[in-house]
C-alpha cells in the first residue's frame, strides 16, 4: 500500500499495518486510539473521522501526509 492508496473506505487496520507510525500520529494529532482493547480498528477512515467529529476528507488528506512522512 502506498500513501495515495489510502481511501475513505480503507479499513484503518490496513492503514496502520502498512504505516505503523500513523498510530502515534493519530493519537498525538487527534487523540484517536486505534490499538487497544475496544478500539475501532475495524472502522474505515471515513467512519473513524465521523466517530471523532472530524471532516472525513480532512482526516484522509492528513493521514496520507502522515503516511508519506512515515514511509521509509
Radius of gyration equals 11 Å
Largest sheet: none
* Shape verdict: globular
The averaged pLDDT comes out at: 86
Number of helices: 4
Q: How much helical structure, as a percent, in the residues?
A: 40-55%
Number of domains: 1
Number of strands: 0
Q: Oligomeric state of the chains? A: single chain
Strand content: under 5%
Q: Return residue spans where pLDDT drops below 50 for at least 5 consecutive residues.
A: none
**Coarse structural class:** mainly alpha
Order of helices and strands: HHHH
Q: Termini, distance in Å? A: 13 Å
Question: What can you see in these coordinates?
Answer:
By secondary structure, the chain is mainly alpha-helical. It has one domain (3-70). The protein contains four helices and no strands. The chain has helices at residues 12-18, 21-30, 45-51, 56-70.
Summed up, what is this model?
With 72 residues, this protein is mostly helical. It is 54% helix and 0% strand.
Amino acid at each position: 500500500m502506498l500513501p495515495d492508496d489510502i481511501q475513505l473506505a480503507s479499513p484503518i487496520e490496513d492503514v496502520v499495518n502498512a504505516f505503523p507510525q500513523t498510530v502515534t500520529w493519530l493519537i498525538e494529532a487527534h487523540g484517536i486510539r486505534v490499538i487497544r482493547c475496544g478500539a475501532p480498528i475495524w472502522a474505515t477512515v471515513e467512519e473513524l473521522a465521523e466517530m471523532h467529529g472530524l471532516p472525513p476528507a480532512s482526516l484522509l488528506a492528513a493521514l496520507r501526509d502522515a503516511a508519506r512522512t512515515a514511509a521509509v
